[in-house]
Design a protein that fits this description.
Layout: E1 17-18, E2 21-22, H1 23-40, H2 43-66, H3 70-78, H4 96-101
Antiparallel strand pairs: 1-2
Helix pairs in contact: 1-2
Amino acid sequence: MALRTVPIRQSGNRPNLFMGGDRELVMFSILIAATSIFVAMEFKATIFGVVLWFSSLYVLRLMAKNDPKLRHVYLRQIQYKKYYPARSTPFYHNTRAQEMQHL
């Protein structure tokens, strides 16, 4: 009896991008640019919002081209500790004085 193979379709494995950039970041940059345009209602604010929109879209597209999941990787690495002290074994327990030394 031969093993059954199931093809993995590309459409089910694509990153969630919008306009070439990360979906949430692009939509948030649209929100910030539109807010700056419509709240101030001045010509300078319109220019600022348009420049902000195009520059953020350019940067977000570069970011997504480099790594589509870069935002998720960055948010995960923020949660890591700044320093992990060396341990001789995973079952070794430091005393309170040793723990305070590495904070």
